[in-house]
Amino acid sequence: MSFLKKSLALMCVLFLAKPVFAIEEDGYDLWLRYRPLDSHSGSKLAQHAQAIVYAAEPSQTVNAAVAELRRGVGGMSGRTPATVRKLRDGALVLATPASMPALKDLNLPMVELGTEGYLLRGVRLQGHRVTLIAANSDVGLLYGAFAWLRLARTGADLATLTTQSTPKVKLRMLNHWDNLDRTVERGYAGESIWDWWSLPDIRDPRYVDYARANASLGINGTVLTNVNSKAEVLTPAWIAKTAAVADILRPYGIKVYLTARFSAPLELKEASTADPLDPAVAAWWKSKANEIYKAIPDFGGFLVKANSEGQPGPQDYGRNHADGANMLARAVAPHNGVVLWRAFVYSPESREDRAKQAFNEFKPLDGRFDSNVVIQVKNGAIDFQPREPFHPLFGAMPKTALGLELQITKEYLGFATHLAYLGTMYEELLKADTRLRDVGPTVAEIVDGSFHHTSSTAMAGVANIGSSRMWSGSHFDQANWYVFGRMAWDPRATARDVAREWVAQTFSAKPVVVDAVTEMMMTSREAVVNYMTPLGLHHLMDTGHHYGPGPWVDNLQRADWNPVYYHKADRNGVGFDRGPGGSNAVAQYAPAWSRVFSDPHTTPDEYLLWFHHLPWDYSMRSGKTLWQEVIAHYDAGVLSVADSQARWVKLKPSIDPLRHADVAARLAVQLREAQWWRDACIAYFQSVSGLPLPNGVRPPPLTLDQYKARRFSFAPGRG
Ligand code: GCW
Fold this sequence. Notes:
eight-stranded parallel beta barrel, binds 4-O-methyl-beta-D-glucopyranuronic acid, single chain, six-stranded mixed beta sheet, globular, alpha/beta
């Protein structure tokens, strides 16, 4: 070959040389991908896992831990370690005090680990240099195995490893809003993962992968059914189906729970009333609980939505929430079951500000709930909006176990199409200072029980999981499942750290990828707030499906279902007055906050229109008028999505093509819809304010009537 030909050939090779991705990734493997590391890292990893040692007869849970380690090490290093009983150098040793009495010679802080914690450490054990995964229980070993794999995947130095971790919250749960017909209320990831029809006989292997994914995060409970579910879920056929799922999840430390429809005894025609104080009703629930526990000895308990949005409850019989919750709690108490009773209530009759109603109903009941009742409180007082101040019940019920309910599925943050990483939203809430004292406690300290010394602690996330191949409807929505689990384990974890470890495991551990994708994630929720509901606005979405903007909606049967109820925009101003001259919702907060929130000048901008109704020419801290500021926020939201889109384009060489293309397509939809939110909201607010658009602001391309005329008959997630 001539020199010229050679050079041309070389140039062609260089030009065509693209990174080769071994597998077209479809997202099924979640963050547990275990793809091959480069050969240097792979062989280093293999050195620390030359064999897996467990010295006793393994339980199903230990088998799951061992299988995961073999899968992980094999996948990443190409060398699948053998499982042996005897210690040897370079082994990964799984040990509890019971399975390996020699552990005590090491003087490890085993007591600190409690029942679910784990410890990872390089040690010399009976003359052998090994990596120890130690715990007091088998499930602790499983969590330790997942933690070790996570560290291996995210580039930790396995040679100098010494770490330990214990969950700070006792019940770390998913709440599925899955119906018995397999539709999912507010689900954007296909049908329910639970194929109820074919259960209990057919056990989809996917259930095992569901269990692995949850166990990798430390999630230890799952409510299989929707809080709006039918009473049939408590019939023998469904109990058998639930038992089959429980059998699959059990080795992974996950208990199953069901939702209990309060009127079940009546609806199933097995009682003439559902009055919680009627002995026949209490007896019905007791025998129902016995029946369930016979099939599922470690059944977790019931989650209940009562007297909320048309659901039956104790108030139908003149009783209160404590009467209802305690009656159910007594049915499951002999089996160590729990009742999670939701505080998401607002009445069809009351004219009180909806944001105040849960507090008004529950606060007086403080101290009246049985010890196995947890009151499950949404993060904010309205309903999972893109931004809400923390719920005033946190800190207000010192004698009650208060659990936190977060929404993982993005009902109000763009479904599964918009990229919105919820870690920053969860962190903002958990770090919020309730100011019951000069400083603190934070919401996290209420939720993890450290402030009020509560032992029943709980965090629940409304799942975003469905039968979609990528589980959560989009690749980035997997991160929301992930961060929920990580923060339920440790409410002090930061959104950024969790994002980084998720990216490293899910896409690539290369710093360029981790940095850029983390940045996209960290700015994403604020972008959504800005293009949907800036400056404390809330509940501006369209009716029913909650898809897209609908700030004009004013025709729904209940006042508090209408966006106009929440923004109260007119010629003179915008916002909901919750100050002392308005609904006085501010008084539900500790005095320090109440003072701050009472005055628009001290209220943080992000909550301004949540607490105040202000004139459009109100002068903001920035020097802009409120009208200008609202518009600037809408524009900033759209711009931020465009920025993320640009970042993603640049990452093309580093991300496998299938996933890159899918995310790119979704970002394009998001940009279009962010624009739509911005345009429709500005068109609407302009129509009520009568103000001209500030100089340089791009006018909405359509008329308000055109935005109003849009209809979406088949939007997903209506349940
Ligand atoms: O956010 C609202 C949803 C309903 C949901 C309800 C609740 C399950 O729009 O779909 O019902 O909250 O949390 O009970």
